[in-house]
Amino acid sequence: MAEMIPVKERMKRNQVPMSEQEPKERIYNFKEVPLGYTKEEAIYEAQRCLQCKVPKCIAGCPAEINIPKFIEKIVEENFTGAYLEILKTDNLPAVTGRVCPQEEQCQIVCILEKQGKPIAIGRLERFVADWARENNIHRRLPELKRKNQKVAIVGSGPAGLTCAADLTKLGYEVTLFEALHKPGGVLVYGIPEFRLPKSIVKYEINEIEKIGVKVITNFVIGATLSVDRLAQDYDAIFLANGAGAPRFMNIPGENLNDVYSANEFLTRANLMKAYNFPEYDTPIKIGKRSATIGAGNVAMDSARTALRLGAEKSYIVYRRSRKEVPARAEEVHHAEEEGIIFNFLTLPVKVLGDEKGNVIGMECLKMELGEPDESGRRRPIPINGSNFVIEVDMVIDAIGTSANPIVAGSATGVETNKWGYFIVDEKSKVTTKEGIYAGGDIVRGSATVISAVGDGKVAARTINEFLSSGKSLREVF
């Protein structure tokens, strides 16, 4: 049993760093960059928790984890108990422990944040989930009386998986429809192996399937079957099909060879296993000098993936300054360590090509920052006459995604906004059609995994309230 230490001593301790692969090594492989805590490191870090009487960290967690309680169990070396505590509300702990921006949510409200050293909640969650997997610990569900109501989930990303698992634990018969050949959504096609191994995602999904969630792949709602038709067989529907349509800058030259959307580039690298080259000879051409447009997490993923797949130089081109970069600080730090070259205050205006249609460069303008815009960030303003050329032979557009209209087009009475995203009541996630709910990127646009998890939880609760009241979508249509 680990020793309980005085509060003053706990407050003196610094946050335990997590060991990582060396940058010079990791740029040549797709293995995870952070290596995880050891048992001793996890206990030492967990001992720092003050066990606040009013823990603000819980309110900062979209997955609603009782953070002090699972950390207390780590201190007691009851790792099984810590894992089961997390599973009460978070169905994807090994995923959220890796990719959730804890520094902007649960950790930012930690009382120790005032000293600049909040509890490393995400690292502890990852440790517990990994320990449980390695020690063959599984969730324990009480015997439930199964309900005779059926719920369809469209999309198997974090929102869909969360909603499906929560509803199954309430006794509903849940079927999850996935358009691609593997479930997981953005967790498998969008996030690189070095940030989130596919084996981790597969394990978490298998655990969800074991509790009774039925997963059907290669099934495109809106093409294989419409939402309207689905409504005839299910009592409620949750639309979590993501925002998978690529966006481009609409500048001259974007139709040249070797210009990718980040979606296409990362999907090829992930689902077509470019990370296992040469075992998998994935059809993806990598230039010697790659430029990624944008500075969000997807841009960092794209630039770092290009480097690992053979680019000699990998650039990030961003129209604002480093201060306005939307990516997680950890991802920017890792990119810088790996030698990614950042071109800040730079706006691409044209992709240049040769007579064969191949990319040979990108014309850009220098920018300066003006007053803040609607996002709260200072508005970038072009500097006239500042044109210059970056010599590149590959361009990746990572400026965001749009809603694919195929699902919405098959759902009568389910309205979308001007960007094609479903309109929902924020508190319930119900759409403009009673019995149909929506969440994740198809409502928010490109957002975080954990916000999608939160949407899935809210939708599960309100679907349960809807069905418990005796209503059914079949009666609505």
Provide keyphrases for this structure.
477 residues; alpha/beta; Fumarate Reductase Iron-sulfur Protein, Chain B, domain 2; FAD/NAD(P)-binding domain; 5-stranded parallel beta sheet; 19 helices; globular
Give a structural overview.
With 477 residues, this protein is an alpha/beta fold. The protein has three domains: 128 residues, Orthogonal Bundle (Fumarate Reductase Iron-sulfur Protein, Chain B, domain 2), CATH 1.10.1060; 169 residues, FAD/NAD(P)-binding domain (3-Layer(bba) Sandwich), CATH 3.50.50; 156 residues, FAD/NAD(P)-binding domain (3-Layer(bba) Sandwich), CATH 3.50.50.60. The protein has 19 helices and 16 strands. It has a five-stranded parallel sheet with strand order 3-2-1-4-16, covered by helices on one side. Strands 6-14-7-8-9 form a five-stranded parallel sheet. Strands 10, 11, 12 and 13 form a four-stranded antiparallel sheet that branches. Helix 6 packs across helix 8, helix 9 runs parallel beside helix 18 and helix 13 packs across helix 14. The longest helix is centred in the C-terminal third of the chain and has 20 residues. The radius of gyration is 23 Å and the shape is globular.
The major sheet is characterized as: 5 strands, parallel
* Model regions low in confidence, pLDDT < 50 over at least 5 residues: none
Give the amount of beta strand, in percent. Answer: 15-25%
Q: Just give the CATH class of the largest domain.
A: Alpha Beta
Radius of gyration, rounded?
23 Å
CATH topology category name of the largest domain: FAD/NAD(P)-binding domain
Q: Which CATH architecture of the largest domain would you pick?
A: 3-Layer(bba) Sandwich
Structural class: alpha/beta
